[in-house]
Amino acid sequence: MIDFTGQVAVVTGAGRGLGRLYALDLARRGAAVVVNDLGGSMRGEGTDAKVADEVVDEITTAGGRAVASYDSVDSPAGGQAIVDAAVGAFGRLDAVVSNAGIFGSVPFEDLSVDDWTRMLRVHLDGGFYLSQPAYRVMKKNEGGRFVFISSSAGIFGQPMEAHYAAAKAGLVGLTNVIAIEGEAHGILANSVMPTGFSRMVTETVGDEKFLAESGFMQAIRPELVVPLVTFLASRACTFSHRNYSAAAGRYARIFVGLSEGWLADADTEPTAEDIEEHLEQMSATERFLVPGSIVDEVLEVCERRGVSAMPGNAEVEFPQGSR
Ligand SMILES: NC(=O)c1ccc[n+]([C@@H]2O[C@H](COP(=O)([O-])OP(=O)(O)OC[C@H]3O[C@@H](n4cnc5c(N)ncnc54)[C@H](O)[C@@H]3O)[C@@H](O)[C@H]2O)c1
Fold first, then answer.
1. Hey, which end of the chain has fewer CB within 10 Å, N or C?
2. In this predicted model, what pLDDT tens digit does every residue of 292-307 receive, in sequence order?
3. The pTM is what?
4. Which amino acid residue places its CA nearest to atom 7 of ligand 1?
């Protein structure tokens, strides 16, 4: 069994929906949990302390350990307070599930600056405000796990969600860099693109009655996302820098690959016409790499060019389509 005894986890947005289920599973497996939730509406209005309190009661009634945090992730002070709640109540911090979020659908041309900034503040700034103080604690502890809850909307796109998609895609960038810098300290960071029935899904797909009768709600029940998040938050997870989707019991890696592309002759100056001519070769995705950083990308092309970008004879290995 993947066990969290002696470990401390923070789950933001843990009062409702998917976050509540992550918190319950981590607690059931022995983690002491900070149940953070502002208790606001789906669009981010209002607060309600009951929302976090009820989950804490659920955990403690079942014999687990949990404390409530009502701070908003959307300010540096809020992020710090959530981390302080973990260290203050339980003395350490092992895993962070950055899950709190709001949602709203607006056509791109009608999106207001307020809609845009509020969405980025909660999802993307919130991810930073929470993870930086948590990272510092984990570094002292010599290890930890971050699970950033992103969204397929950010990776693949979704109409009327420019603000949400941009914020969620930004979390993948944050995950990438925390993973790279955290490696030396035993800190791993991965992200999850979940699909699970909640108030957010009702907004996107409409007619709840039909969805219940068709079996759709049951097929994408939120419980099906939980095992992936629990695994990534645990010490059983030994990799970093990856993204996984969980939807309807299908668990799959999502990756950004670099196609083999077209390598222009070294002694030519390619023109826009050359680009047009080689589009097919540039766009083919049969052969690709998943670079671990900009450095990996540049070293790979330098290797193909026969140029050295590093002092000494540093060699980079790129197993195709993996990392
Ligand atoms: N449900 C899905 O299919 C789906 C798909 C993709 C991504 N997600 C993401 O998963 C996460 C959970 O979504 P859900 O469907 O369970 O939604 P939900 O609305 O049921 O739960 C989100 C919780 O976050 C809390 N919250 C919002 N702003 C907060 C803030 N500033 N500080 C602290 N808490 C705050 C809310 O009070 C709420 O309880 C979100 O980040 C969402 O974007 C969900």
1. N
2. 999 999 999 999 999 9
3. 0.95
4. 151
